Amino acid sequence: MRHAVAGRKLRRTTEHRMALLRNLVTSLIEKERIKTTLAKAKEARSLAEKMITLAKANTLASRRRALAFFFKESAVTKLFGEIGPRFVERPGGYTRIVKLGLRSGDGAKMALLELVGSEFKKKIKKKEKKSTPAK
């Protein structure tokens, strides 16, 4: 029986699974949107929401806990500098999962995991220099 057993194993060992989820959450914080399988997105969502809740507190202890979790210090800086203050008034539900369909290679269910509010960001395009033709 599986009473009170939560989470997905994702066919990985515990160490591999935790490293995978930490990488997914780090990428989500850095890029604010990642494309992955539905099962991985559902697992990464809970960890990402816990990290954003830590950033809302913005204490030294919470920053150290986040540094112990993330692989990149730049992700912690962005989390506490931009993302945490953005969700201070929000009581929860910082992420969204959008189902994308099946992957063509193996038929896995794909999903887009994104932070709420990041869908309105437009990518900044570099202006092309107008070159004058040589005479």
Plain-language structure description:
The structure is a single chain. With 135 residues, this protein is α+β, with helices and mostly antiparallel strands. The chain has one domain: Ribosomal protein L17 (50s Ribosomal Protein L17, Chain: A, Alpha-Beta Complex). The chain has 4 helices and 3 strands, in the order H-E-H-H-H-E-E. The chain has a 3-stranded antiparallel beta sheet. Strand 2 and strand 3 form a beta hairpin. Helix 1 packs across helix 2, helix 1 crosses helix 4 and helix 2 crosses helix 4. The longest helix is centred in the middle third of the chain and has 20 residues. The termini are far apart.
Mean pLDDT: 92
Low-confidence stretches: none
Structural class: alpha+beta
Total count of domains: 1
| Beginning-to-end CA distance, first to last residue | 81 Å
Query: Which CATH C-level class is it?
Result: Alpha Beta
Could you state the CATH homologous superfamily? Ribosomal protein L17
| Beta-strand residue percentage | 5-15%
From the coordinates shown, what is the CATH architecture?
A: Alpha-Beta Complex
Secondary-structure element string: HEHHHEE
Question: What oligomeric arrangement do these chains adopt?
Answer: single chain
The outline comes out as globular
Helix content: 40-55%
**In CATH terms, what is the fold-level topology?**
50s Ribosomal Protein L17, Chain: A
- Rounded to the nearest angstrom, the radius of gyration is 18 Å
Total DSSP helices:
4
Main beta-sheet annotation? 3 strands, antiparallel
- Give the strand tally: 3
Strand order of the largest sheet: 1-3-2
